[in-house]
Amino acid sequence: MFRTTPQASAPIGILDSGAGGLSVLQQIRALLPNESLLYAADTAHIPYGDKTAAFVRERVNHVAAALVARGAKALVVACNTATAAAVESLRERYALPVVGMEPGVKPAVESSRCGVVGILATAGMVESRRMGDLVSRFAAEREVIIQACPGLVEQVERFALDTPETARLLQQYLTPILERGADTLVLGCTHYPFLRPMVERLAGPKVNVIDTGAAVARRLQQLLQQETLLNPHNSGAPTAFFSTAASSDQSALFSRLLAQAVEVQPLTTEDTAASVPC
Ligand code: DGL
């Protein structure tokens, strides 16, 4: 177990395989404007969704170690696939608040009027034990259609948010769900909120779309409060962005997704995980 004595003024570390976690970062910024944030994308290994759980766990441990080495007082795994593979390992490793994400099966089932719910997620998430547990805990009596969506993450990483190819892929994934009469759709990957306008357009006005970014921000706030780690003063520090494949293209992508100019810096991870006792 790696122990530090974090200060309330320290930054929060947020990680994802790529740019998807920026959808969660936006929610955290809106709820916790005093906090300084470090965002790390493991773009050299994206997508996580088609890798084994063991590979994803190892990568997440490396990226998290790099964030802790930069002083993170808490970790947010802003990726459903990475949470399924690695959140327990992070909690064993660090005596820090660690917040993970999971598809909003519970709120979807509670708000569905017809009892038919669709979940869009990566292949890794669909196959994970966590997904099976979520469905058996919250939706055993309901009809849940779980749809793996290969290719959508890549479309977001290309900023192809409104292209015919993205529409074709989404239509293909939504059709079996809509044909079964679902009235609620869960965005089970943090890249998908960037496709929300297209999802809503293709699914139509009768379908309610759910994502859990705001709930994750609230959970983070609660944990920081419990540990007296909420920053009482505005840190004044801008968010810093890192990637294992930093490039000017990536800075351009992040800037477009956030509608603000940002620069992505290189993140080296290989030596940091090894230096963390576990
Ligand atoms: N953004 C990640 C998630 O929430 C997945 C991206 C990937 O497959 O790399 O699941």
Task: Describe what you observe in this structure.
The protein is of the alpha/beta class. The protein is built from twelve helices and ten strands. It has helices at 22-31, 53-69, 80-93, 105-111, 123-127, 129-138, 152-157, 164-179, 196-203, 213-226, 248-258, 270-274, and strands at 12-16, 37-41, 74-77, 98-99, 116-121, 143-148, 184-187, 208-210, 240-243, 264-266. The strands form two sheets. Strands 4-3-1-2-9-10 form a six-stranded parallel sheet, sandwiched between helices. Helix 3 (80-93) links the parallel strand 3 and strand 4. Helix 2 packs across helix 3 and helix 8 crosses helix 9 (196-203). The radius of gyration is 18 Å and the shape is globular. The termini are close together. The model is unreliable at 274-278 (pLDDT under 50).
Compute the CA-based radius of gyration.
18 Å
Q: What structural class results from the helix and strand content? A: alpha/beta
Strand order of the largest sheet: 4-3-1-2-9-10
The H-and-E topology, N to C, reads as EHEHEHEHEHHEHHEHEHEHEH
Instruction: Give the cofactors and ligands.
Output: D-glutamic acid
- Shape from CA axes? globular
Mean pLDDT: 93
Q: Note poorly predicted spans.
A: 274-278
